Amino acid sequence: xxxxxxxxxxxxxxxxxxxxxxxxxxxxxxxxxxxxxxxxxxxxxxxxxxxxxxxxxxxxxxxxxxxxxxxxxxxxxxxxxxxxxxxxxxxxxxx
Length: 95
Description:
By secondary structure, the protein is of the alpha+beta class. The protein has one domain (5-83). It contains two helices and four strands, in the order ααββββ.
């Protein structure tokens, strides 16, 4: 779904902060569901959906003004983006 301009602007800082925190976890070799959940809690992004294993963790959470912050952390990369909700209203597809 589309993300409003206001919601996109409000997500810029959380996306940046999360990217920095997840890059630190990646550099430390701390890729895990628990570590990524902790990063979301530290940054005040509640109710994150986090799944994966020590090889790759994907995540999605509600952004401050609507929409989602989502992405993935792997040993070789961190991807964090903001966008609209998926059609079922969540931030990650159901598994």
